[in-house]
Amino acid sequence: MGLLSEGSPLSWEETKKHGDHVRKHGIQQFINQYKKLKSRSRDILYWGDEVEYMLVKFDDEKKTAKLSLNAGEVLDNLQQCEKLCPQDHPSTWRPEYAGYMVEGTPGKPYGGLLAHFNVVESNMRLRRKEIQQALGPNEVPLSLTSYPRLGVGNFSDPETKTTPETGASKSIFFPDEVIFQGHPRFRTLSRNIRQRKGGKVEIQIPIFKDKKTPSPFIEDFSALGDDGEAARTAKPDHIYMDCMGFGMGCSCLQVTFQACNIDESRLLYDQLAPLCPIMLALSAASPVYRGYLSDIDARWTVISQSVDDRTDEERGKSYLSPIYKCYNDIELVLDQDLCDELQKGGIDETMARHIAHLFIRDPISLFSEKLNQNDEEDTDHFENIQSTNWQTMRFKPPPPNSSIGWRVEFRPMEVQLSSFENAAYVTFIVLLTRAVLSYGLNFVIPISKVDENMRTAHKRDAVNKDMFYFRKDVFTDCSPADVAKCMASGKCERIKCSNIQDEYTQMTMNEIFNGSDDFPGLIPLVKQYLNSVDIDIDTSCTIQNYLKLISKRASGAEPTIAKCIRNFVTNHPDYKQDSVVSEEINYDLLKLIHEKTDNCETLSTDTKFSSKTKDDIPTALSKAEKFLAQKNPQKNMMNGHKS
Ligand code: ADP
Ligand code: MG
Ligand code: MG
Ligand code: MG
Ligand code: MG
C-alpha cells in the first residue's frame, strides 16, 4: 500500500450505501486515465521489491518468542530518513495490517541495468539493520511468512486480550489491539469485512494428522468465550480461524515492474499469471497456523479465505491480452453495465471484462473526506475497489500526473527468511520477464489449469511430490510483434483455440525449472538470456548463486523453508506427535531462524550458499558504474523488446 491518507472512516452501513457511487466514479476514473495514458510509451524498465517483516521479542528465561506490537514507534523512527530527504533515502517504510509488521521497499526503484542485481540483497540487509536499530533489547525483525502461534494465548508483547463480544473482528483468538493502531484503515477493514459477510470470517485449514493427533480433531472453544459460533463452524480435522488478521497478518514478498507501454504490461501480466502457483510452491514457507502443524505449506488460501467472501467463480482470474482470449475458460462474473460503460469509453473487451470483474466488489472501507472526487484528476475510487481484490497478479495503471508508467505486480511469493533468499527469488522473476520479452516466450495455459495449479501449490511438499500443468512449447506463436498486431486489429488469428488441450502437460517442478529432454527449463532460458548481454564478474557471480538456490529448491536438493520448519518441529524434543507447536518449540525455532538469518543464508543444514554481495550499496554501485564506463551501456540494459 502507498501512503495512507488520513481521514474518518465511515460505518459499514454508510460505506455500503455509497457502493454504487464508488463503483461508478471508479470506472470513470479508470476510463479517464486510460484515455490519457493509453498511448504513453517508451517508458523504461523500473522495478522494486516489497518485503514484510515481523517484530519478534525473545524472553530467554521464560523461553518465549512473542510478536512485539511496536510497529508504530519503529515506523516513526524508520521514516525519519524519508522525511528528511524525500528524494534520496535508501529505504521506504510503510505500515501493514498488524501492529507487529512493517513493510520495507528500496528507497528508489531499480532500473534496467544488470548491475542493479548487486544492490538488491545489500539493500535488503540494510533494511533489516535499520529495523534492528529501531528495536529494543531482545527484539528482532524476522521475515516470517506466518508466525506459528498467531492467535494462541498470550502471543503478543505487550499482552492483549480478545473481545469476542465487541470490537472490529470479534475474534476468539486474535485481539483487535494486535491490529495496527496508527491508522483507522485496518480496524475499519476488519469490521466491515465481517459486517459485509454478515458473520465472522471463516478460515479452515486441514490439520497435519500425526500419530497422536486426536482423530477426528475437534477443539473445544468454550474457554475462549465462544458463543457457539466457533463450535458450529469449525470443521473436524481442520484448524479453524475466525478473522482476517490470520491472513493479513502473514508476510509476503512482492515485485512490481514498469513496462514500456500498456501492451507490454498486459503481456507481462499474462505471462506471469501462470507462474504464480509455480512460484508459490517454490517459495513455500508457512506450514504452521494457530499453533498447529497444518497439511499445507503456503499461506495464499489463508489470505483468500480471510479477506474474501467470494465464491470460486467470483474469484476468477483472466488474461488481459486479446490474443489469449480463448485461454479464459472460466466464466468471469462481472458487472455487465460497467463493462458496457468501459467499452463505450473506448476500452477493448478483454480489458473491460477484467475491470468489470474487479468491480463486482464493494468498497470495504471508505473515508468521508474521499467521497467526492474529481474524476479527471483522482483515482481513489478506482484504487479502492482494485485494492479489495486480493489477487496473485495486479495490473497497476499509472497514477495521475506522475512520471510513473504502466506496471504489473507479482504477488504470490512467500517471504523467505534471509535477504539472500529474498534477493534470489526477486532476481529470478525479474530476469525471467526479460527472457520472456527478449525471446517472446509464452507460458499461457487455460486459466482453469492455473487455478488447479494454485490448489496443488499449497499441498505439503508439492515441490517434490506434485505435478503442475505447464505449457509444452514456450516458443510458440506469440512474439511481442504478434501480440502488438493482435492488439491493433482486435483479432487473434494466430491462436487456434481448437487444440489448446494439446498445448500443455503435467511436469514436475524439477522439469519446469531445470528442464528435461522435452522442455528447455526456466533456468536454462534465463541463463541463455544472460549470455546475450554484457555482464561484469561480480554481477554474474551474484546471479549464478541466486539461480543455484532456485534450481536446487526445484530439484529438491535444497528443502523449502516450509519443509525445514516441519522437520524442526517434528524433531524437537518437546514435540508430542500431536501436531501441536508448543511455546517452547516456537521459541527454539524462531531463535534458530534469527541466528541463521543473513548468516548462513538458508535454514537447512545441507547446503551452504555463499553470498557474493557483501558490498554495501555505494560500493556495489560504484563498481557497477566503473564497469559500465568501459562498456557499451546498451548491452547492459534489460529493456524489453528487441524492436
Ligand atoms: P504497493 O504496496 O501498492 O504494491 P509499494 O509502493 O509498497 O506499492 O511498492 C511498490 C514497489 O514498486 C516498490 O518496490 C517500489 O520501489 C517500486 N516502484 C516504484 N516506482 C516504480 C516504477 N515506476 N516502476 C516499477 N516499480 C516501481
Ligand atoms: Mg507496499
Ligand atoms: Mg500492500
Ligand atoms: Mg504489504
Ligand atoms: Mg505491493
TrEMBL record:
<keyword id="KW-0436">Ligase</keyword>
<keyword id="KW-0317">Glutathione biosynthesis</keyword>
<dbReference type="InterPro" id="IPR014746">
    <property type="entry name" value="Gln_synth/guanido_kin_cat_dom"/>
</dbReference>
<comment type="pathway">
    <text>Sulfur metabolism; glutathione biosynthesis; glutathione from L-cysteine and L-glutamate: step 1/2.</text>
</comment>
<dbReference type="GO" id="GO:0005524">
    <property type="term" value="F:ATP binding"/>
</dbReference>
<keyword id="KW-0547">Nucleotide-binding</keyword>
<protein>
    <recommendedName>
        <fullName>Glutamate--cysteine ligase</fullName>
        <ecNumber>6.3.2.2</ecNumber>
    </recommendedName>
</protein>
<dbReference type="GO" id="GO:0006750">
    <property type="term" value="P:glutathione biosynthetic process"/>
</dbReference>
<keyword id="KW-0067">ATP-binding</keyword>
<dbReference type="GO" id="GO:0004357">
    <property type="term" value="F:glutamate-cysteine ligase activity"/>
</dbReference>
<comment type="similarity">
    <text>Belongs to the glutamate--cysteine ligase type 3 family.</text>
</comment>
<dbReference type="GO" id="GO:0017109">
    <property type="term" value="C:glutamate-cysteine ligase complex"/>
</dbReference>
<dbReference type="InterPro" id="IPR004308">
    <property type="entry name" value="GCS"/>
</dbReference>
<dbReference type="Pfam" id="PF03074">
    <property type="entry name" value="GCS"/>
</dbReference>
